[in-house]
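Hi L.,

As promised, LARGE xylosyl- and glucuronyltransferase 1:
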Amino acid sequence: MLGVCRGRRRFLAASLTLLCIPALTWVYLFAGSFEDGKPVSLSPLESQAHSPRSPASSPREREGLEARMREVEEENRALRRQLSLARGRPPAPRRGNHSGTYSVEEGTGDSESLRAGIVAGNSSECGQQPAVEKCETIHVAIVCAGYNASRDVVTLVKSVLFHRRNPLHFHLIADSIAEQILATLFHTWMVPAVRVDFYNADELKSEVSWIPNKHYSGIYGLMKLVLTKTLPASLERVIVLDTDITFATDVAELWAVFHKFKGQQVLGLVENQSDWYLGNLWKNHRPWPALGRGYNTGVILLLLDKLRKMKWEQMWRLTAERELMGMLATSLADQDIFNAVIKQNPFLVHQLPCFWNVQLSDHTRSEQCYRDVSDLKVEEFGGEWVGMVSHTWNCYKKLLLLQMLEAICKHWEGPISLALYLSDAEAQQFLRYAQGSEVLMGRHNVGYHIVYKEGQFYPVNLLRNVAMKHTSTPYMFLSDIDFLPMYGLYEYLRKSVVQLDLANTKKAMIVPAFETLRYRLSFPKSKAELLSMLDMGTLFTFRYHVWTKGHAPTNFAKWRTATTPYRVEWEADFEPYVVVRRDCPDYDRRFVGFGWNKVAHIMELDAQEYEFTVLPNAYMIHMPHAPSFDITKFRSNKQYRVCLKTLKEEFQQDMSRRYGFAALKYLTAENNS
């Protein structure tokens, strides 16, 4: 029962009360003493009424007022000191778990006492709590193994980074696949004041493999039990998170809760928000032992130093061995064992307010943790030769991608390297679509490479380079997502690679491009059918109506009757779709949005003396779709076109510097076009 107690998405959330200091000094002050249970307010008018110049004032009243004023001034000084911390001013140095990496950004300085919980039963305590110093490193541990976990953890990490102001140290227990993916992401993000350490999850399997686990997380779902052994002995405390967590507040607020631990409390946990451990969900439901509703381990605060002194390893192992004699297996992985230990040792737990782990799933009481979305702090939800290289997408291509990708897979049986330009939410939507598609799930040679959205321009050539970089074949067919290759093109290209000796020559094999304006097309199954559709006006040579120069050098008139490959020469603005060796030059990343992104690449191939050869029995067809946002900007915005012209000139100057005299023809061709 996945959704019953460990919800697929969790939301950590908390209300935040901001104190604003007005510009006027005498607006409203609260005296330290109270009269009739109410604070004594001192406005400017009231201060005049009690001034020494007022005949109604007695010496005793003046003395009392002066005493209250001294108390008020002292309280105001204390308040200003507290608020200076909240604004990020450097506090006094304090010992703690510090990383060698320090942030140049503002520290949190926010103490728990400055935030009032809006939900009954979850309000902050009135007493002042120690603030988190702005240079104090916050340690976060996450178990993440496999493709699915690495996708989920990206959303978690981004939500933490979005709100944080302190240096962060991530401790990731990962397998080799997840480590490769996440190391690449952190490297490309280049986020300051963030340190990442990886721990080999495969080496920890022997520690927990003896525990039968029925939960979908498998053996990795038990690894939080061995964090006291896995993490460095010098690490005193850590926040442990499931991968299906999303933060809606600064993680420093949760880190500050460690200061509230008392006595032998070593675990910070939120009460489980389902009835799972009450054992009343269905007939003969028999959960592991727990205190009341039990605790959810999606968010855990661990005092590692104290746990080690308590011999935590021995404690949980003995408990698990004893309970497994009757339970036979865990249903909820580490959560069952944590709860069984707590049942025997309730003094170990510091119960966190439920807004620190709002469990959004079926059969939970999560709505009792918040009144509005803004109150939330954290939520928990849960042997090839030629490869096709493609990129997508801008926002307008969402529906096109989903439809076209399945269609491409039906036309092309070879491997595909696909770069996707998505937000976190869109990546999750695409994943759900892919998992629900019989066509895509039936393919095991399609690689999806997500480039996360950033900035206002579509980085088309960056996406192409990402797709090229991750190909595993010696040859690549460079295509776009809105083209369908002819049936059997993969096998035809494999034979052509051998026939034209691409392994030992610099050739770019051209696949002629056509287009249709019809959304419903009976796709031609042969060259003869395609020629017939050309004659009837069902198909056209690609961009015949708007950009003839882009594909005119292919010489479609010759292609109609050609039976053998033929060579064509480069011309200005030529941008065919080609098959090349994997070691071909990258696309120029400076070209973003619409305009010259493929033209520049073909020019580079020509400068490196690639021979352009048209394949006589190959073709691809562009399918219609709405104009992209970038082409609309190109057509409507003069400044956009001016910038593109400047970029083209810069690229041509670079070509001249790199290729010398041979590059003069590109300047001449551009001037004559």
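The chain has a mean pLDDT of 77.

Thanks again for sending the construct details.

K.
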